[in-house]
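Aim 2 progress update. The chain analyzed this quarter is reproduced below.
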Amino acid sequence: MTSPTPVTPTARHGGCQCGAIRFTVTGEPDYPHTCSCRDCQTLSGGPMMAWVSFPLDSLTWSSTGPTWHYTWPDSKRGFCPSCGSQVCALDDGATSITLTLPALGNPPDLVPVNQSFRETAAPWLPQVPDTRT
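Predicted structure tokens:
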């Protein structure tokens, strides 16, 4: 009898618009969602941002990492200093990192399952339904 072959996590690649920041992430994605908080709106220049989390230790930067900007006392956003693309968010002491879905190329298997900060969402845009099971 043979033992089952271990499952190798899928490697996902991403980065910023200009290519100065590149990364690879493996591990299980967690909680793809959109956020309509005022920070996400102003930083993205749009009505919301789309996010997904991965284990922090599954992320490797294949170029220089992002420049960081604190948007909350214990939470910072990572962006490219060349093109300005926002690629991630990281809370102090966290074991996971949240990547923007656009930085991952908007993969079709990572569909947002909820929307944060519905109370500040653009009233003209339908909200993402809560499909968590």
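Residues 19 and 34 are 24 Å apart (CA to CA). The two ends are 36 Å apart (CA to CA). These observations will guide the mutagenesis experiments scheduled for the next reporting period.
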